[in-house]
Write a structure and sequence with these properties.
This protein is 41% helix and 14% strand. By secondary structure, it is of the alpha+beta class.
């Protein structure tokens, strides 16, 4: 299966057919997707238009392409979910992205499932002052919030790190085993779904994230 730029280019025509306001363009010798995206809600109300670019990434389709908002309507700062070093849009926290792309994602799916909701959320904040679909924090904070949500550890950094280490380093427990979280509940009724979901992220990614969270929280 093609990966990276080659896979990206193969899907450009289908994306243009699905979104006629977007077209193929060339930048620095490589093809990109470029054009306008309109934010329209479920009632048909038009909220805003954005100029965007979508670029290939090394691990596409097992990671997202890169999205850029080029009309200057969204502040280029982390608080607005823009990477300040590259100005790419932070569409999802990394663990969510890895899970979504485990079996691959097409450019068309990416626009439908990720880009459009991202811009609707951004527009709602610009107009109404808050994200209607909620948000995780930017960067490592968002990664921690995602894991704590899935693991139901609240603001307990140590518990989050310990559970991530267990998931990274162990095979799935038996359904009737006592859950590894220490609750004394059976695994099937406690963290089974969380274990299965997070195991998709992979050992190296889980350990790396756990170590970064531990450092930030002053646990090491």
């Amino acid at each position: 299966m093609s990966r990276g730029y080659d896979a990206f280019v193969l899907q450009l025509e289908d994306a243009c057919l699905a979104f006629p306001s977007l077209s193929r363009a060339t930048q620095n010798g490589k093809e990109i997707l470029k054009g306008m995206i309109s934010v329209v809600d479920g009632n048909g109300k038009h909220w805003e238009d954005y100029a965007i670019e979508i670029h290939s990434t090394e691990n596409f389709p097992n990671r997202f392409p890169s999205l850029f908002e080029t009309s200057g309507k969204i502040p280029k700062i982390g608080d607005w979910h823009i990477y300040e070093d590259t100005f790419a849009c932070c569409v999802k926290v990394k663990p969510e992205e890895i899970i979504r792309c485990k079996k691959g994602i097409t450019i068309t799916e990416y626009i439908q499932e990720e880009v459009m909701p991202y811009f609707f959320n951004q527009t709602h904040r610009r107009v109404e002052g808050y994200y209607i679909n909620g948000e995780y924090g930017h960067g490592l904070l968002g990664v921690y919030e995602f894991y704590s949500d899935v693991l139901r550890t609240g603001k307990d950094y140590r518990a989050t790190v310990n559970l991530l280490h267990f998931i990274a380093m162990n095979v799935q427990p038996l359904r009737t085993s006592i859950c590894f979280c220490g609750s004394q509940n059976k695994f099937r009724n406690c963290h089974k779904q969380a274990f299965e979901k997070l195991k998709q992220i992979g050992r190296e990614n889980l350990l790396s994230d756990a170590n970064e969270i531990a450092k930030t929280a002053g646990l090491v």
